[in-house]
Amino acid sequence: MSLKALLRLASLMTGALLMGPVSAQHEGHDHGHDHAIEAVAAAHDASEGQHEEAKTGFDAGALIMGHIGDEHGWHLWGHTSLPLPVILFDTERGLQVFSSSRFDHGHATYEGYALVDHRVAAVDANGNVDEAASANIWDISITKNVMSLFVSLGLLLIIFIGVAKAYTRRAGQAPTGLQNLLEPIILFVRDDVAKSAIGHKYERFMPYLLTAFFFIFLNNLMGLVPFFPGGANLTGNIAVTLVLALLTFIIVTVNGSKHYWHHIFAMPGVPGWVLGILTPVEILGMFLKPFVLMIRLFANITAGHIIALSFFSLIFVFGESSAGAGFGVAIGSWAFTVFMTCLELLVAFIQAYVFTFLSAMYIGAAVEEPHHH
Amino acid sequence: MSTPDDLRKARKGYDNYLRYTGLGFTMLGIVLAFTFGGWWLDKQVRWPFPVFTLVLSLLGITGAMLYLFKETGRR
Fold first, then answer.
1. Residue A142 neighbours by CB under 8 Å, 6+ apart
2. Does B36 reside within a domain?
3. Does residue B43 belong to any structural domain of this protein?
4. Phi and psi dihedrals of A330, rounded to 5?
5. Residues A127, A112: contact at Cβ < 8 Å?
6. Contact flag B25-A267 (C-beta cutoff 8 Å)
């Protein structure tokens, strides 16, 4: 796993190194200004997110961040987007519900609201952001990620209700169709994840582990589909992975046995002065373990999306300087993207497996009974 | 030829490997948390010398090592 992470980081950095100088140089050439100042200004602009009026060229950073982030409305192709409901709870003005098409992709203001950096902000009559009023907004819109969540939940329900029905209808018979496809995976989660990590108390945790596994796996796969209704970076959204990790944390904490808490607060067989260090460390570890679960899934899936988008961006970055260079790079980009997507198919499974396995392991440690040495 | 037993054994090795992924990040988290705690304490007491940052960061490293021994030596 660590080798893969390293490879990822290396390719990301290569991408950044390739892209950084190329775009900076290009701008310097266009405007005839000092390269360094231009590059710094461009970087500053990009970091502030207010680059719309200043830059006309291709902005790889904005493209990539736009694709891995969330948005109001779902971009389909060209200038066509699927409008999604914007639901705001304004502590001053109450509940506001309207379509995201009212914003006209961030160009229009509606009822005193506008999109600033893909977020809803309150604006005054002149279109200036009103910070105080913006602080009152609770944005609970059906965004692209939420919509994607609904789609995959629907899919999961259809698949698993169908499979469950097949088991009751064809009890004792050989599995067929979808049931046949999923049975080995379900058995894999039971035998190689739950049983091997939790032990004989595994049965109680099967619903959570199976749900987590298939939820992550399906959403990872949906994220790899480049067109609607795929392509949302759901499992690469830190809020989603936070909730998943929080669920594991709650299950571990609620099911912690006396043995488990005893090992955290007073590790047996450890001298008192060491306990002074070890107990705070164990308490920290209680929170750090799910925290690492959250970061791992988020980082792996987001990195996968960034890599694919970086390869695409390279085509346009080179295409801007000359069409020939664009075509030349396109061949390499295409090959690398195909290769990386194949790898991502593997990663989609591995990350779902790792999350479920580690959750099961933490649960296993929590429900463990004392060993008789 | 690989028998199912071989596969199971190979997977056990992989499971053991998985057990320790995240150990590094947890250790890093422990050191950072201790150091941050020391830094915060130093800010509260305003002594001319950052004694808590120094002591707690070293304690954090010790704690991370203890954690490593504890986690890897259990089985």
1. A84, A85, A87, A150
2. yes
3. yes
4. -55, -40
5. no
6. no
What letter would DSSP give residue A129?
B
Residue of A nearest to B15 (CA): A357
- A interface with B, Cβ–Cβ below 8 Å: 1-2, 192, 196-197, 267, 274, 277-278, 280-282, 284-285, 288-289, 291-293, 295-296, 354, 357-358, 361
Q: Residue B74: what pLDDT? A: 57
Q: How far apart are CA A305 and CA A28, in angstroms?
A: 29
Are A144 and A232 a contacting pair, CB within 8 Å?
yes
Contacts of A293 in chain B (CB under 8 A): 22
Nearest-CA distance from B54 to chain A in Å? 15
How many domains does one find in chain B? 1
Q: Which residue of A6, A288, A294, A362 to mutate against B (max B Cβ within 10 Å)?
A: A288
Q: pLDDT of A129-160, one tens digit each?
A: 777 778 888 888 888 899 999 999 999 999 99
**ipTM of this complex prediction, to 2 decimal places:** 0.78
Name which of A2, A77, A9, A95 is nearest A310 in CA terms. Answer: A9
Range list of H helices, A49-176: 60-68, 131-134, 144-169
pLDDT in tens, A230-277: 888 899 999 999 999 999 999 999 999 888 898 888 888 778 888 888
By residue range, what is the domain housing residue B39? 22-72
Interface of B with A (CB under 8 A): 11-12, 15, 17-19, 21-22, 24-26, 29-30, 33-34, 59, 62-64, 66-67, 70
